């Protein structure tokens, strides 16, 4: 069994409060969960402009995980509510 972890660091320039940031991030997390059937969580932070999203995918095939991550990457980068500062992938 293979485990893949993908991490996105986001900058949310139009967010002026934690409530606004949570709305944007929760909307993104829900869309990723529903569309790609993966686990998604946000690293806790009190900064209203920055967020870190972690995504985990488990499968027997590393190719399936890689394809899923490529689709998620395209999906995340196309949104205009935030900017992706950094992302990385790890496989265990």
Description:
It is a single chain. With 92 residues, this protein is an alpha+beta fold. It has one domain (2-91): TT1725-like (Alpha-Beta Plaits). Helices cover 38% and strands 36% of the residues. The chain is built from 2 helices and 4 strands, in the order βαββαβ. The protein has helices at residues 18-36, 62-77, and strands at 2-11, 39-42, 50-59, 83-91. Strands 2-3-1-4 form a 4-stranded antiparallel sheet, with helices on one face. Strand 2 (39-42) and strand 3 form a beta hairpin. The radius of gyration is 13 Å and the shape is elongated. The model has no long low-confidence stretch (mean pLDDT 95).
Percent of sequence in beta strands: 35-45%
Unreliable runs: none
Q: Regarding CATH, which class?
A: Alpha Beta
Number of domains: 1
- How many helical stretches? 2
Tell me the quaternary state.
single chain
| CATH topology name | Alpha-Beta Plaits
SSE arrangement:
Layout: E1 2-11, H1 18-36, E2 39-42, E3 50-59, H2 62-77, E4 83-91
Antiparallel strand pairs: 1-3, 1-4, 2-3
Brief sketch in words of this structure:
The protein is 38% helix and 36% strand.
Provide key terms for this protein.
single chain, alpha+beta, Alpha-Beta Plaits, elongated
């Amino acid at each position: 069994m293979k485990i893949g972890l993908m991490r996105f660091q986001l900058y949310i320039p139009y967010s002026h409060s934690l409530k606004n940031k949570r709305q944007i991030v929760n909307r993104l997390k829900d869309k990723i969960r529903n569309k790609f059937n993966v686990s998604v969580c946000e690293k806790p932070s009190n900064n209203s402009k920055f967020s870190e999203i972690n995504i985990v995918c488990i499968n027997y095939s590393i190719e399936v995980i890689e394809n899923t991550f490529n689709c998620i990457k395209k999906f995340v980068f196309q949104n205009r509510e935030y900017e992706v500062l950094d992302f990385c992938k790890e496989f265990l």
